[in-house]
Amino acid sequence: MRYQRSSALFKSAQRVIPGGVNSPVRAFKAVGGTPVFVEKAKGAYLYDVDGNTLIDYISSWGPMILGHAFEPVIEAVKLRAESGTSYGMPTELETQIAELAVQMVPNVDKIRMVNSGTEACMSAVRLARGYTQREKIIKFAGCYHGHSDAFLIQAGSGAVTFGAPNSPGVTQGTAKDTLLAEYNDLELVSNHFEQHPEQIAAIIVEPVAGNMGCIPPQDGFMQGLRKLCDQHQALLIFDEVMTGFRLAKGGAQESLGVTADLITYGKVLGGGLPVGAFAAKAEIMNHLAPEGPVYQAGTLSGNPLAMAAGLAMLTHLNENPEVFDRLAKKTKSIALGMKNLLVKKGIPYQINRYGSMMSLHFTDQAVVDFKTAALGNNENFKAYFHGMLDRGVYLPPSAFESYFLNDALSEKDIDFTLSAFEDWLINKKS
Ligand code: KE4
Q: Does residue 94 have its Cβ closer than 6 Å to ligand 1?
């Protein structure tokens, strides 16, 4: 597949944008090669600047659950734009999408819109700290909650430790309040509560992890976190930026049957425009300014175009809940198709899958946390990524990401994907 124009555009971009991209994962650092520049997208397809058509399995990292340029969303944005793009004043539209979101997800009375998943998670942690009057939080190695300081904390030596910053600019002062544990391991979490009685405000967790590949919670893990939070009067924060409005109408809370105290959203909620949000029972949300003392604000929060896009997206999902099962079935057929081909070829692999999220790992060990996710053979992964790209299939450019299927994918697209995979395997250099 030709990439001349992408290469030229990447060179110009690098002169004026750090790394040539506005978000690092787009730069292909984990897989090498030149990032693909997109001209446009429609349905399940991306059209790059070199005239290549690609079947899209990242769906803009989640938002495009109904496929690109979904007509009702486009129409809603076009119509709304004619009335202006931002006012800095309240609109009825914000109440309409808030009412629908609160009706669709369990266990929340109120929701506050922000402009990204990072902002949603950052604000949810501040609210949890303000509400509980405690300072520490527990997060899990390999879970990603956006780039605010409290979350850019990597496990130090050993599995459980005080976090050490994994990005310059994050201070020790911040790191000391973030305690780390391993996904799918309750004992480590319990130890933290024992060692820091009445100091832990919240656990923040991806209820289905999607930032170390896709890692579903093992039976009892989410239920165990719920129980530990109840025992120690800490809040359970579900980071549903990926899973919200993707796994089910009610997201992971509905799909797993576990309720959280604070839930963050993004991606699908904005229909592809910049939206994040956090929600909880009124008892918690009423601590937020201007009602309560916990401050949080945003010039473009509740932006009318973004709300129009999100409302069109949520309305369609709310009226057509069969989308969720249909997507899970498509994901299952891809996973089973790949599995049969990999077994035939005798290549060690793991395929993790939950709903319309999945990932392929080249390792014979079950991938259940960050440590085991890191055991994947990255040379194989790079060859797989580029082999599929050259055959017209766009996958996440890192083994530490999840696929996000969209409802525009047809049976023909799935057959095409599996034939491309088979062709790559046949021609794969060992
Ligand atoms: P944003 O600030 O990127 O909107 O959301 C941060 C975030 C929070 N929580 C979860 C569970 C997330 O997955 C994300 C962002 N996801 C990444 C994909 N792994 C966004 C892609 C990117 O960084 O460009």
A: no
Residue nearest to atom 17 of ligand 1 (CA): 61
User: What six digits make up the tokens of 27?
Assistant: 């730069």
pTM over 0.85, yes/no: yes
CA dist., res. 356 & res. 353, Å (int): 7
pLDDT tens track for 243-270: 999 999 999 999 999 999 999 999 999 9
- Chain-centroid distance, C-alpha 393: 20
Q: Is 265 in the pocket of ligand 1 (CB under 6 A)?
A: no
In one-letter notation, the amino acid at residue 241 is: V
Partners of 360 in the beta sheet? 351
Pick among 3.30.420.340, 3.90.1150.10, 1.40.20.10, 1.10.150.20: CATH of 4-62+324-427: 3.90.1150.10
Amino acid 3 reads Y
Q: Which long-range CB contacts under 8 A does 314-321 form with residues at least 24 apart?
A: 314/97, 314/100, 314/101, 314/104, 314/245, 314/268, 314/269, 315/72, 315/100, 316/66, 316/70, 316/72, 317/65, 317/66, 317/104, 317/245, 317/249, 317/268, 318/100, 318/103, 318/104, 318/249, 321/248, 321/249
d(CA 92, CA 84): 14
The answer to whether 405 and 59 have CB atoms below 8 angstroms apart is yes
Of 118, 206, 212, the one to substitute when testing ligand 1's pocket (max ligand atoms within 8 A of C-beta) is 118
Domain boundaries along the sequence of the chain: 4-62+324-427, 71-319
CA of 153 to the centre of ligand 1 (A): 16
179 - beta bridge partners? 138, 162
Residue 30 has what DSSP assignment?
A: T
Res 103 pLDDT > 70: yes
Q: What architecture is domain 71-319?
A: 3-Layer(aba) Sandwich (3.40)
Decide if pLDDT at 122 tops 60: yes
